[in-house]
Design goal:
Oligomer: heterodimer
Order of helices and strands of chain B: HEEHEHHEHEHEHHEEEEHEHHE
Strand content of chain A: 15-25%
CATH architecture of the largest domain in chain B: 3-Layer(aba) Sandwich
Shape of chain B: globular
CATH class of the largest domain in chain A: Alpha Beta
Number of strands of chain B: 12
Radius of gyration of chain B: 23 Å
Number of strands of chain A: 24
Strand content of chain B: 15-25%
Helix content of chain B: 25-40%
Structural class of chain B: alpha/beta
CATH topology of the largest domain in chain B: Rossmann fold
Distance between the termini of chain B: 41 Å
Largest sheet of chain B: 8 strands, mixed
CATH class of the largest domain in chain B: Alpha Beta
Number of helices of chain B: 11
CATH superfamily of the largest domain in chain A: Pyruvate-ferredoxin oxidoreductase, PFOR, domain III
Chain lengths: 621, 353
């Protein structure tokens, strides 16, 4: 137990920042796990460069991990950090502008050498020149103290010892915020099971960090953040990519369909491929394809063969998959396409977030080529979205696009683990016998004879006797599926495919308007859920009435959406693009929605959105 | 796959099928005189010999004249998009091991727009029989030069002659680690049938290049080897474990290896039998098969036909399934609800309330 005083806080935002090689993502991840175990609600934002190792000590090489944890419901990773851990001058320079005045800086003083300062354009050492006097600066010789603490490990080089400085920093922060380190110790034991000396050194560095906080005069007190009230149940911390992978596996399990993933590595979607490739025990097949096109081709082939075909990608990959999605629209087979959006166009910002693939998902194909589009709104919601996508794809024999983004993919939050029996049962309903007669009156299989309710066509899997049939991308005759170039038939088929997707059952949007007096509605989609909800909370606290709703289904839109939009005097649509949803809403509902857009590769801040909403309310008077 | 939810009989249907059973009711829409008709008839005639139930046969194709093939065969089929058939077929056969999957493709579909998928299917050794109809022209788009058109060939898009060096599909396949590589001519039904049989029973990817005449846009491309008077001097029929010969009677030549390693046809009467090249399609090393593929020339002086390579290597889809099945088995069988619950919980949970 600490002999120093402990102050209670309701929320803290910490940002760990360092060189790409400093292990900041791992440090942040571990601190998050230990925080989750303590029962805080939390939200995280990893932010790292596309380069694996950008030149050491430079601004482009800075990697950071932000964590917001609280004793109440957390909606975003936080706008301004309260605490900045800066492992070098570049990390300080790149991040100090975001730190709130009066915040805490813990800097690795050993890295603030003349050379490193010069690399990022500091003429003087900011730790000592007084430029940081509006912050509380702890200049800690992290490297030297870590190396000293590890003096007994004679088998390790100095470099190897220095590498453990992130564990020292983690120990120090764990002490400061009264986090247990047991889970991290277990993690290290598993990670370094085959390298006992490195394991011992890391454990020692972690403990040394805790002791440093406890004993050094520099740190007068520590802080406690109590657990957040959350519904009863079993929780784990989860990123969007992991949640999405697990959702696919769970849905496959509930459908009895084997999951077959065809995928090509691409940031920030690759983690889904990694996760699924380790889950063969659950009957999951993963194929790393030769390119994006082959990835979706394999998935579509698997679906034709009676499996649940899935492909995962990011924007540039989605562009390459367009033609095959069109084929899937024409074949009317179940297919799930996951697009983890990143900054575009072209290669753009591979590791940063954006929502600019909405129109590509909706329309990025030749011809009239409708497909369902679903967008999860938080990291753990990626699980439910994946399950829903599988359900929809199977029920309607249609490609379904799931639009997540870099923020959801790598961000994490606590997740109330659902009970398996509470997940929907998904019935593939394979065709097993002829469903009609041919011209001669003999029993025949008609591959495009539709279900009158869903307009879905039968799914007859090769290997089923008597149902041999051919499907293809050429226009086919209604009902029989034979090649047809008939003008009227094409018109019929185009409209049928559209009607099928338009008719997909999606729930109405729910409007959060507690006072009932709001004249301004804010409508978002996808990952802006957290920042918008946080901004609305802030604006309401200031006494303004704002209604809020969030779109999860982008195609088809919920049936009540038009009525909801029409019920407010002003509709604000924040998006991390230049107004793609706004364009769709205007075209569809003739409502003059007002766009608020930003494409900085980062999620909206609560402050920014709160300002936009406040201005909108005030403008209406 | 252990968890296939498909309800079907996986055992071959015992009833004897005929060519008619594999003929669909669709009107065949190739141009009159197209070589594709002969290939279709040969394949339909050969399929009953496979002894595989009709429902377990699938034809997957891309785009092009050849890719209309699936519509005409009374099995399962997919006419997909340009060049992608090998990728789609890879997913299909990996997901569904009971199927015998053919890919019908052409020189443009397989070697141009779909070149990447073709080479990767072959190096993976997926259980597919790829029928590559080579007419050295784009037919469906009405007569542009293809990746196998001759250098200098005048076509609609090369009025001054094609400047593209053509692919040799056999050399390409061998370079891409294909385990079964053969060439046949559409007009030689007996040989094509024999090769189809060997290919269809091969575990892994079998590539068959089929010379096919396009009477509209590239008529007579293979006349030099179809013409009976010239054929014997040009056609090199590859026979396993036999010397590589061409010609008949007095003019018969045999392939020998010269001291510098190169191959040359010499009059059989003058050749040293110790220098004979003995065709060995089963050799682990593909070098000699590759050297045989290089006997090709634009003039068709010597054109090898038959099976160049036929070796055994684990098939991709078999290994993929074995990994999944092995993981399922060592975990004690298909995942139960409890197993899934454990996965969802992960290793680091906490309880509230």
């Amino acid at each position: 137990m600490s002999s120093k005083s402990v102050h209670d806080l309701d929320r803290v935002v910490i940002r760990f920042a360092g060189d790409s090689g400093d292990g900041m993502q791992l440090t942040g991840d571990r601190f998050t796990s230990d925080t989750a175990t303590l029962g805080n609600d939390l939200s995280t934002l990893p932010n790292f460069p596309a380069e694996i190792r950008a030149p050491q000590g430079t601004l482009p090489g800075v990697s950071s991990f932000q964590l917001h944890f609280a004793d109440h419901d957390v909606l975003t990773p936080g706008d301004a950090p309260d605490v900045l851990v800066a492992m070098n001058p570049a990390a300080l320079k790149a991040n100090v502008g975001d730190l709130r005045r009066g915040g805490i800086i813990i800097a690795n003083a050993d890295d603030f050498t003349t050379r490193n300062l010069a690399k990022v354009g500091y003429a003087l050492n900011p730790l000592t020149d007084g430029s940081l006097e509006s912050y509380h600066v702890h200049a800690v010789p992290l490297t030297a103290t870590t190396v000293e603490a590890l003096a007994e490990f004679t088998g390790l080089t100095r470099k190897a010892k220095e590498r453990a400085k992130n564990m020292f920093a983690l120990g120090l922060l764990s002490w400061m915020y009264n986090r247990p380190t047991a889970a991290t110790q277990d993690f290290l034991k598993a990670k370094f099971a085959k390298a006992p000396e490195i394991l011992a050194a890391n454990l020692k560095a972690l403990a040394a960090g805790v002791n440093y906080g406890e004993t050094t005069e520099d740190f007068a007190s520590s802080y406690a953040v109590g657990p957040a009230p959350m519904p009863a149940g079993t929780y784990r911390n989860i990123t969007g990519n992991t949640a999405l992978a697990l959702g696919l596996v769970a849905a496959a399990h509930r459908s009895g369909l084997p999951l077959v993933l065809g995928s090509y590595p691409i940031t920030p979607a690759s983690d889904i491929l990694h996760t699924l490739s380790g889950l063969k025990r659950y009957g999951v097949t993963t194929m790393q394809a030769e390119d994006e096109i082959a990835g979706i081709g394999m998935a579509l082939g698997a679906s034709f063969g009676g499996a649940l075909g899935v492909t995962t990608t990011s924007g540039p990959g989605l562009a390459l998959k367009s033609e095959t999605i069109g084929l899937a629209v024409s074949l009317e087979l179940p297919l799930v396409i996951v697009d983890v959006q990143r900054g575009g166009p072209s290669t753009g910002l591979p590791t940063k977030t954006e929502q600019a693939d909405l129109l590509q998902a909706m329309f990025g194909r030749n011809g009239e080529s409708p497909a369902a589009v679903i967008a999860p709104q938080t990291p753990n919601d990626c699980f439910a979205a994946a399950v829903e996508a599988v359900e929809m794809a199977t029920a309607y024999r249609t490609p379904v696009l799931v639009l997540t983004d870099g923020y959801l993919a790598n961000g994490s939050e606590p997740w109330l683990v659902p009970a398996v029996e509470d997940l929907p049962r998904i019935e593939p309903n394979f065709a097993t016998e002829p469903n009609g007669v041919d011209k001669a009156g003999e029993p025949a299989f008609l591959p495009y004879l539709r279900d009158p309710d869903t307009l879905a066509r039968p799914w007859a899997v090769p290997g089923t006797p008597g149902l041999e049939h051919r499907i293809g991308g050429i226009e086919k005759a209604d009902v029989t599926g034979e090649i047809s170039y008939e003008p009227a038939n094409h018109d019929t088929m185009v409209r049928l495919r559209q009607a099928k997707v338009d008719g997909i059952a999606v729930p109405d949007v729910e409007v959060d308007d507690p006072s009932g007096a709001a004249r301004v509605l804010v409508l978002g989609w996808g990952s802006t859920y957290g920042p918008i909800a946080a901004a609305v909370r802030r604006v309401r606290r200031a006494g303004y009435a704002v209604a809020r709703t969030h779109l999860r289904h982008l195609n088809p839109f919920p049936a009540n959406l038009g009525a909801v939009l029409g019920a407010y005097d002003r509709v604000i649509v924040p998006e991390m693009n230049l107004g793609q949803l706004a364009l769709l809403l205007r075209a569809r509902y003739l409502v003059d929605v007002r766009s608020h857009t930003a494409v900085r590769g980062l999620p909206f801040t609560t402050a920014e959105l709160a300002e936009v909403l406040t201005a909108a309310v005030e403008e209406l008077g | 796959m252990t968890t296939t939810a498909v309800n079907r009989t996986s055992a071959p249907t015992p009833v004897a099928l005929t060519k008619k059973d594999f003929t669909s009711d669709q009107e065949v829409r190739w141009c009159p005189g197209c070589g594709d008709y002969v290939i279709l008839a040969t394949v339909q005639g050969f399929l009953p010999e496979l002894g595989i139930a009709r429902e377990n046969v699938v034809f997957v194709s891309g785009i092009g004249c050849s890719s209309r093939f699936p519509y005409y065969v009374q099995t399962y089929g997919m006419h997909s998009i340009h060049g992608r058939a090998p990728a789609i077929a890879t997913g299909l056969v990996t997901a569904n091991p009971d199927l015998t999957v053919f890919v019908a493709t052409g020189d443009g579909d397989a070697l141009s727009i779909g070149g990447n998928h073709l080479i990767h299917a072959m190096r993976r050794n997926v259980n597919l029989t790829i029928l590559l109809f080579n007419n050295q022209i784009y037919g469906l788009t009405k007569g542009q030069y293809s990746p196998t058109s001759r250098l200098g060939q005048v076509t609609k898009s090369s009025p001054y002659g094609s400047v593209d060096t053509p692919f040799n599909p056999i050399s390409l396949a061998l370079g891409a680690e294909a385990t079964f590589v053969a060439r046949a001519m559409e007009s030689d039904r007996a040989e094509l049938t024999a090769i189809l049989k060997a290919a269809a029973t091969h575990r892994g990817t079998a590539l068959i290049e089929i010379y096919q005449n396009c009477p509209i846009f590239n008529d007579g491309a293979f006349d030099a080897i179809k013409d009976r008077s010239q054929q014997q001097a040009r056609l090199v029929r590859l026979r396993a474990d036999e010397p590589v010969r061409v010609g008949v009677e007095d003019s018969r030549q045999v392939l020998v290896r010269r001291p510098d390693g190169s191959l040359e046809f010499v009059a059989e009467a003058e050749a040293d039998p110790a220098a004979y090249v003995i065709h060995d399609p089963y050799a682990a090393d593909a070098s000699q098969a590759f050297a045989l593929s290089r006997l090709d020339s634009a003039e068709m002086t010597h054109v090898p036909m038959g099976i160049f390579r036929q070796v055994s290597r684990p098939a991709y889809d078999d290994v993929v399934r074995a990994q999944v099945d092995g993981a399922v088995e060592s975990a004690g069988g298909a995942a139960s609800d409890a197993d899934l619950a454990e996965l969802l919980r992960g290793r680091d949970t906490w309880t509230v309330g």
